[in-house]
Amino acid sequence: DIETAEKPAGLLGRLVGRGSGSEQRRTLDDDMLEQLEELLIAADMGVDTALRVTANMAEGRLGKKLSAREIKELLAAEVARVMEQVAKPMPIYAHRPQVVLVVGVNGSGKTTTIGKLASQFKAAGKNVVIAAGDTFRAAAVEQLQVWGERAGVPVLTAPEGSDPASLAYDAMTQAQADGADLLLIDTAGRLQNRADLMEELSKIIRVIRKKDETAPHNTLLVLDATTGQNALNQVEIFQKLADVSGLVMTKLDGTAKGGVLVALADKFALPIHAIGVGEQIDDLAPFDPEEFAAALTG
Ligand code: GDP
């Protein structure tokens, strides 16, 4: 859990000897690899990925004496190598409107992320429209309206409890009529009734395609990085519900054990378009693999 979250950072020091300097050397043997695996698992990397990362790190180096600094650098390089393959900004197309469907469980940071994205694209000179597609959560709609005001972006809403697909259809009509560059569509995230959610999402997609058969152009899955290995389950579930094209990882500003990002990259190879680093409108950053690897390994 979050309270006991520990990055490999301080732990790496312990691995090579308590209180010893970063130049203290130790043999890279099975024992050390096992300890490294444990550190990575504790950092939320998951067993499979931790094993793969340490195996790659050790390749050609078993029996060698390495300093703590060297181990850290090897580990960071291996993590960066995995993450470089998924660090890709959300693709922007010339097609208008570019329709971005945003999915994810409630509480993952979907609404906040849509507000941040709207603000960024607006600042980049794009004409943006938001559709508050989670029509069953009045709070989500209100929150989106607040974000829309802050970003200076119109938010299309529908009466509480009304059909989100109907809102999506109206939003498509309006975005097309206005010549909008981007239409960001929020969706419900109630996993409690997965059959309903699947029906709802597929209906939204069907309806969007009636207006533009190439849409949606992006399907972003928003994941809370503090949920650890749960994020892996959520990808699996949402890939069945929609054609997920990329991820946004939120709450990486806190004590999140960011190791789950490595597990996600290793398992699904889905692009990570951006990371949430706070609750404010500007707290959305591009994903930087080198920076991430350095922070994760301490
Ligand atoms: P939704 O239910 O998926 O729409 O989630 P919200 O956007 O309402 O976010 C849930 C909570 O997480 C809110 O309190 C947000 O302020 C918070 N939140 C969202 N993204 C981030 C982030 O990147 N960092 C932090 N610290 N909090 C975030």
Automatic annotation (TrEMBL):
- What membrane topology does the annotation report for this chain? Peripheral membrane protein
Q: Where is the Signal recognition particle SRP54 helical bundle domain?
A: 7-83
- Write out the catalysed reaction: GTP + H2O = GDP + phosphate + H(+)
Keywords annotated in UniProt: Cell membrane, Cytoplasm, GTP-binding, Hydrolase, Membrane, Nucleotide-binding, Receptor
Specify which residues bind GTP according to the UniProt entry for this protein. 104-111, 186-190, 250-253
**Where can this protein be found?**
Cell inner membrane; Cell membrane; Cytoplasm
Question: Which EC numbers does the record give?
Answer: 3.6.5.4
Domain SRP54-type proteins GTP-binding stretches: 97-298
**Limits of the AAA+ ATPase domain:** 96-243
Self-association and partners: Part of the signal recognition particle protein translocation system, which is composed of SRP and FtsY. SRP is a ribonucleoprotein composed of Ffh and a 4.5S RNA molecule.
Entry protein name: Signal recognition particle receptor FtsY
